[in-house]
Design brief:
The protein is of the alpha+beta class and about 325 residues long. The chain has 3 domains: about 60 residues, 2-Layer Sandwich (Uridine Diphospho-n-acetylenolpyruvylglucosamine Reductase, domain 2); about 110 residues, 2-Layer Sandwich (Uridine Diphospho-n-acetylenolpyruvylglucosamine Reductase, domain 3), CATH 3.30.465; about 100 residues, Uridine Diphospho-n-acetylenolpyruvylglucosamine Reductase, domain 1, CATH 3.90.78.10. It has a 5-stranded antiparallel β-sheet, with no helix packed on it. The protein has a 4-stranded mixed β-sheet with strand order 1-2-5-3, with no helix packed on it. Helix 3 packs across helix 4. The protein starts with a strand and ends with a strand.
Length: about 325
């Protein structure tokens, strides 16, 4: 294990923010993790995957560990399912493409989501009517204090909307080393959310398949979201807020066009991008930071913005949405 000091994390986060890590190392094999608990190393530790869901606002103290643990293995199967164990450092989209190529269904709606497999359960990533919790069987993680590996079954992870136990009770306490997915041999197509059906029609798809759905999702995401390699961003910066139906009906009296998606009998989800756009932020730019002109959910770094400028912009957006709609937006991005 090679330890480096005062390394810039600019190449390791998709916002392209230049902040130093006090100590930095890469882990390519879970057997190296016990070495990271040696007494001469900092007690404070941070795990960095694809860096696609973080905003760096200050120098990162302690030890930053870049997760490079790879491997995709079929460990079990029955008539209806396959169990696939995936190293947490694998690129999420590459795993999705691998699953589709093998005819394993369940993650096709989650195509082109940036980041690594290890970050997927932390955030409980989701898109187009599907959340990753629906296909997670077991998570293996190294516990820093206990100095051993533990399995966490799906029902132990307190999964919620863009939420999990790994963002709360286990935050900064474990390093996810692998995720085992239970995928379907027979697909259950989900095309009703968002613009998937319209995109499939545009693509002139006559026979539905998991590849066709993934291709539609990729086309939609590519048309709406900026490429982090060309312009710094972390994808959707805010969660779509869930509000009471009563509040929604009240808002409709003043904003008849306000869209929503049902959650249960008492609540609905309102698109955060729509709320932000109605407040006039879409396409806004101040110096080196701003709001993307095609998707108001995405805050961007035009080149040399620092994390605090992006944070301050997000604060202003939260305030104006609260003032106009009475809804408090929550950030999806993790702030370091």
């Amino acid at each position: 294990m090679q330890l480096q000091q005062n390394i810039s994390l600019q190449p390791y986060n998709t916002f392209g923010i230049d902040m130093p890590a006090e100590y930095f190392t890469e882990v390519t094999d879970e057997t190296f993790l016990p070495l990271t608990t040696e007494e001469d190393l900092p007690a404070e530790k941070h795990v960095l995957g694809g860096g696609s869901n973080i905003l760096l606002t200050k120098p990162v103290k302690g030890l930053t560990i870049h997760n490079k643990i790879k491997g995709i293995f079929k460990i079990n199967e029955d008539e209806h399912h396959v169990w696939i164990k995936v190293g947490s450092g694998e690129i999420w989209h590459e795993f999705v493409i691998y699953a589709i190529a093998n005819g394993w269904a369940g993650v096709e709606n989650l195509a082109l989501i940036p980041g690594t497999v290890g970050a997927a359960p932390i955030q409980n990533i989701g898109a187009y009517g599907v959340e990753v919790k629906e296909v997670i069987d077991t998570i293996s993680a190294w516990h820093w204090e206990a100095k051993q590996f533990f399995p966490y079954h799906s029902n132990e992870c307190a999964f919620g909307y863009r939420d999990s136990i790994f963002k709360h009770q286990l935050k900064d306490k474990v390093f996810i080393t692998s995720v085992t997915f239970k995928l379907n041999k027979t697909p259950k197509f989900n095309t009703s959310y968002g613009a998937i059906e319209q995109e499939l029609a545009k693509m002139k798809v006559t026979e539905l398949s998991i590849k066709a759905i993934a291709d539609a999702v990729i086309a939609i995401r590519t048309s709406k979201l900026p490429d982090p390699k060309k312009i710094g961003n972390a994808g959707s910066f805010f969660k779509n807020p869930t509000i009471a139906k009563q509040q929604y009906e009240h808002l409709k009296d003043f904003h008849p066009q306000i869209p929503s998606y049902p959650v249960d009998n008492d609540t609905v989800k309102v698109p955060a991008g729509w709320l932000i756009e109605q407040c006039g932020w879409k396409g806004f730019r101040a110096g080196e930071t701003g709001v993307h002109d095609k998707q108001a959910l995405v805050l961007v770094n035009y080149g040399h913005a620092d994390g605090n400028a992006v944070w301050n912009l997000s604060e202003n957006i939260v305030k104006t949405v609260k003032d106009k709609f009475g809804i408090t937006l929550e950030r999806e991005v993790q702030v370091w």
